[in-house]
Amino acid sequence: MRDKQKKHNRIVLTSKEKSELLIEGIVTIILLILLNLAMYMLLIQIVQSSLSIESMISNISTSIYDTFYSPTSYAWKKPIFFLLGIIDLSILYWRLIRRYRQMQQRHIISELHYISNGHYDHRIPFDLNGDSGKLIRSINALVDSTVEAIEEERRIEQSKDELITNVSHDIRTPLTSIIGYLGLIEEKKYSSDEELLKYTHTAYMKARQMKVLVDDLFEYTKVRQSNTPLSIMTFDMQQLIGQVVVDFELEASKKNVTVDFEASPSSLMMEGDTEKLVRVFDNLLSNALKYGVNGKQIIIHSEKIGSEVVITVKNDGKEIPKQSLDLLFDRFYRVEESRSQQTGGTGLGLAIAQSIVTLHNGYIYATSENGWTSFVIHLPLKSTEL
Ligand code: ATP
Ligand code: MG
Prior knowledge:
This protein is α+β, with helices and mostly antiparallel strands. The protein folds into three domains: 2-128, no CATH class; 161-223, Helix Hairpins (Orthogonal Bundle), CATH 1.10.287.130; 233-380, Histidine kinase-like ATPase, C-terminal domain (Heat Shock Protein 90, 2-Layer Sandwich). It has helices spanning 2-8, 15-47, 53-69, 78-116, 130-186, 193-224, 237-254, 274-291, 322-325, 349-359, and strands at 233-236, 258-264, 269-272, 297-305, 308-316, 363-369, 372-380. A five-stranded mixed β-sheet has the order 2-4-5-7-6, covered by helices on one side. Strands 1-3 form a two-stranded antiparallel ribbon. The longest helix is centred in the middle third of the chain and has 57 residues, at 130-186. The protein is elongated. Bound molecules: adenosine-5'-triphosphate and magnesium ion.
């Protein structure tokens, strides 16, 4: 029945309901005939008052006879019959439509039961006019939003599981090394002081790596929440980027990479959380340095366009594959197949950067073509948070 209804887009009555409607019609017609007769009798009584019972009954029967077989004799009754006819038809229509509406409601309720029994992919398939139609559309919209909420909940749950898996993996790897090296020391399985120092150094480096991960994770969960408070202040964006660039120059020159900063205008006052924004540029520059394989140049361009500042951090070298571009900002995503810690950090840097930019009501995206990989940030000059 449900499939049938889907095709028709209208309520299809069952044969039981059809016979119910038919019986309702017949009963109404019988009742109306009886009512009409009674009214007719009353009318005759009023017109020809003070008659005996016998003459009254004979009068009524003659009147009925006259009405149907000799209508001319009672021409004055015609409008009354016409009026009665209209009233009868209206009553009949009203009763049938009322019963039909009850049936529609029954169908809606049964559809609701069907959905509430776990069939969340089902929607009330028929469309009605008036209030019932509005009710159906509201129910369908409600089911839609409920299903969406359930799915969102499921996605969050799944992403939490993934987070735990990734974190456990990233913590377990250095932890295993630390335990391994400390175990060797504990069992005195080293041949010289140098070897002992090498073991402690490795364990120390691994412990630091774990600390970075835990710190990043803490930062990530903090900036992920949309209600994270920002300590907004007015600052010069060009000056801030300039400082970050200076901090990177030494590291870059060691790798024979030049860092150029183009600021337009040379001073640009805006509002934002400087500590968090520095974190964004730090990560973008260290990424450019780390992942710009065979790259020789990093260019930072910061320009005021309308009511926002557009900052581009780009580096030459190996491009990022197209399919990876959108995934870069997912936590723990790293382009390299192996999640080896040799080549980089935890894979949280860009996820944190994106969250920070979003907290500032801005957006960030990446492009990689013609030998250049660019990260573009749009930030409003005025913070709406203030
Ligand atoms: P973290 O920043 O947490 O120390 P990470 O640098 O690996 O770790 P992200 O900064 O989020 O993590 O970067 C994610 C991945 O994006 C990197 O692992 C790298 O594969 C790729 N990537 C980022 N920037 C560049 C770039 N400029 N050129 C090429 N690949 C890049
Ligand atoms: Mg990074």
